[in-house]
From TrEMBL, chain A:
It holds the Pfam family ABC_tran. It is found in: Cell inner membrane. GO terms for biological process: peptide transport; transmembrane transport. The keyword Nucleotide-binding applies. GO terms for molecular function: ATP binding; ATP hydrolysis activity. PANTHER family: D,D-DIPEPTIDE TRANSPORT ATP-BINDING PROTEIN DDPF-RELATED (PTHR43776:SF7), TRANSPORT ATP-BINDING PROTEIN (PTHR43776). SMART domains: AAA. It is a peripheral membrane protein. This is ATP-binding cassette domain-containing protein. Belongs to the ABC transporter superfamily. It comes from Bradyrhizobium rifense. One of its GO terms (cellular component) is plasma membrane. The keyword Protease does not apply. Residues 6-257 form the ABC transporter domain.
Length: 326, 329
């Protein structure tokens, strides 16, 4: 088996909270607290979870938009987390990002042509001016935008079209991995379908690996190969798509899936309604972080933190229950 | 008689680049105790419709025409003073973002009391007691402590519960919920939807639910109205609408939603796309509003706007070809 494209080992990212006189750092937000996973070439791994579970922080740490607290991020055998800025620049070409809000992630003063040409120039991918032009027009074809649109500015486009520009910009660098951080969440239903289909086509065409960060479980099921479920900075379950959606094992995954309202009136379902709210990541609960809301909680959960263990085949679950609820 | 009857509602806004016909001739009714969902994508006019019902549209630049008859009274003919007596009392509203719709510098208790003291004429003590009762009703733990807290001390789900408590404090006959769970996480959304269903059976208010989430619609609506580009394009009982949508837009919407469990049935089909964009509402639209994106559109559609017709009992749609459309679905 070939080595994975991306490897994340025990990644931690803690943010300081300034409190008290003179803003002394007295507390930490444990945004990501020991997360490990791998992504193979051409694979889609989805990170799912609710607000504040740390899924976006993981994405940003991989892109090294900030330094991590501890742990390793390895892209194709090269450490990213402690790479020198000059090496980092080379590595950035291989991983790109598409953000949630297509309104704030494109520079309103730049024409689409310049937005797309910038990464090509930065990474020295074009051999000549003519080559640059060919690449830019080819990108427009790839994301199915009219070539005439190259001279327009972002405000002249609708949300869906802007997201296409964002995707074209990510593709311009010819990356191997694209981090999609809630890339379709802000879009309307009909436009969302267009962008989801586009991402799937592009993955097939270019053999891209995707880290798909989303809270929308139905979209995730539609387009992912594997899923990692996060809760308060930890992965609680990771498994191939079929296992996660057919037989979720972790009580949180079960509750999460059962809470999604189905577009079928009168559908027979018994949602597991979790009580309370997600605890604060500033003072996460001891032991299993889910124990405050878990319907199966017992003594050991309150003191001892469960580790990810193999439940069946490729399905890994962090839960103390011997017989995981099926 | 219906509790609310809206007839030919037109809410237009004057903008520098022309008149925006945000809502253009929409008629519907809500019966007592009924839940009507208004569905559609951004800019279809669903929120403007709800704001018009409450007369919360600033005039100018807005202008509301038509008739909104609530319990026999035309709300558009009332004075501002008379309208204020209705808002929060007979008709109340829950918005999407509980943080921006609650006052950050007042305790939640004070915000619930205010409605009760103004509309029900309760004194401070009685209002306080009722506020605690309301917080208990919406499932907030330790209500006696929570009434003294400020909105920022509560989580998103709790704030939405407080909003619901304020909205229901005066036993309204009609509750308008504009995307009440859109800003919430899915496990919290499940809590709030369950709460709304429980309260509905206890309080008996009619609900207008405005949403873009078809899952939420299937969960709590009885009847559904689909809007597109400021018009009503289809209306039907909820099961009927999901089973046999008659308008090509509704069919497109239902096809574009991925379903949980799709990977298990092996139905890993491609999502249906609705090509193109919503039309510019500042330009007059001749013919069917959906013609530009519709696969079935012909010259007839581009020239003559289809009227709303009853296609099946209680099921109306505005499409020249909806019989054909039903087969295509």
């Amino acid at each position: 088996m070939s080595p994975p494209l991306l490897q994340v080992n025990d990644l931690k990212k803690h943010f300081p909270v300034n409190r008290g006189l003179f803003g002394r750092k007295s507390e930490w937000v444990y945004a990501v607290d020991g997360v490990s996973f791998e992504i193979a070439r051409g694979e889609t791994l989805s990170l799912v979870g609710e607000s504040g579970c740390g899924k976006s922080t993981v994405g940003r740490a991989i892109l090294r938009l900030f330094d991590v607290t501890s742990g390793q991020v390895i892209l194709d055998g090269q450490r990213i987390d402690d790479a020198h800025p000059s090496t980092m620049r080379q590595l950035r070409q291989r991983m790109q990002v598409v953000f949630q809000d297509p309104f704030s992630s494109l520079n309103p003063r730049m024409r689409v042509r310049d937005i797309l040409a910038e990464p090509i120039r930065n990474f020295g991918l074009a051999k000549s001016a003519a080559d640059l032009e060919t690449r830019v027009t080819a990108l427009m074809d790839t994301v199915r935008l009219p070539r005439e649109a190259l001279n327009r500015r972002p405000h002249e486009f609708s949300g869906g079209q802007r997201q296409r520009i964002g995707i074209a910009r990510a593709l311009a660098a010819e990356p191997e991995l694209i981090v999609c951080d809630e890339a379709v969440s802000a879009l309307d239903v009909s436009v969302k379908a267009q962008i989801v289909n586009l991402l799937q086509d592009l993955q097939r065409e270019f053999g891209l690996a995707l880290l798909f960060i989303s809270h929308d479980l139905a979209i995730v099921e539609h387009m992912t190969h594997r899923v990692a479920v996060m809760y308060l900075g930890k992965i609680v379950e990771v498994a191939p798509r079929r296992e996660i959606f057919a037989a979720p094992r972790h009580p949180y995954t079960k509750a999460l899936l059962s809470a999604v309202p189905l577009p079928e009136p009168g559908a027979q379902r018994n949602p597991i309604i979790l009580g309370g709210d997600v605890p604060s990541p500033i003072n996460p609960p001891s032991g299993c972080r889910f124990h405050t809301r878990c319907p199966y909680v017992f003594d050991r959960c309150r003191t001892e933190e469960p580790q990810l263990r193999s439940a069946e085949g490729e399905q890994w679950v962090a839960c103390h229950l011997d017989a995981l609820p099926a | 008689m219906a509790l609310l009857e809206v007839e030919n509602l037109q809410t237009h806004f004057r903008t520098p680049s022309g008149i925006n016909r945000a809502v253009d001739g929409v008629s519907f009714h809500v019966n007592e105790g009924e839940t009507l969902a208004i569905v559609g994508e951004s800019g279809c006019g669903k929120s403007v419709t709800s704001m018009s019902l409450m007369r919360l549209i600033p005039e100018p630049p807005g202008r509301i025409a038509g008739a909104i008859r609530f319990a026999g009274k035309d709300l558009l003919k009332l004075s501002d003073r008379e309208m204020r007596a209705i808002r929060g009392n007979d008709i109340s509203m829950i918005f999407q973002e509980p943080m921006t719709s609650l006052n950050p510098v007042l305790t939640v208790g004070r915000q619930i009391r205010e409605t009760l003291m103004i509309h029900q004429g309760l004194d401070q003590q009685a209002a306080e007691a009722h506020a605690i009762e309301m917080l208990t009703l919406v499932g907030i733990p330790e209500p006696k402590r929570r009434v003294r807290e400020y909105p920022h001390q509560l989580s998103g789900g709790m704030r939405q519960r407080v909003m619901i408590a304020i909205a229901l404090a005066c036993n309204p006959k009609l509750l308008i919920a504009d995307e009440p769970t859109t800003a919430l996480d899915v496990t919290i959304q499940a809590q709030i939807l369950k709460l709304m269903l429980d309260l509905k059976s206890r309080v008996g208010a009619a609900i207008i639910l405005i949403t873009h989430d078809l899952g939420v619609v299937a969960e709590i609506a009885e009847r559904v109205m689909v809007m597109y580009a400021g018009r009503k394009v289809e209306e039907a009982p909820v099961a009927e609408l999901f089973r046999s949508p008659r308008h090509p837009y509704t069919q497109g919407l239902l096809g574009a939603v991925p379903r949980l469990g799709s990977s298990l049935t092996g139905a890993a089909r491609r999502l249906a796309e609705i090509p193109g964009q919503v039309p510019d509402l500042r330009k007059p639209i001749t013919g069917c509003v959906f013609a530009g994106r519709c696969a079935l559109a012909t010259d007839l559609c581009r020239q003559y706007a289809p009227g709303l017709e009853e296609k099946a009992p209680r099921h109306i749609a505005a499409c020249h070809y909806s019989a054909k459309g039903a087969i295509a679905a």
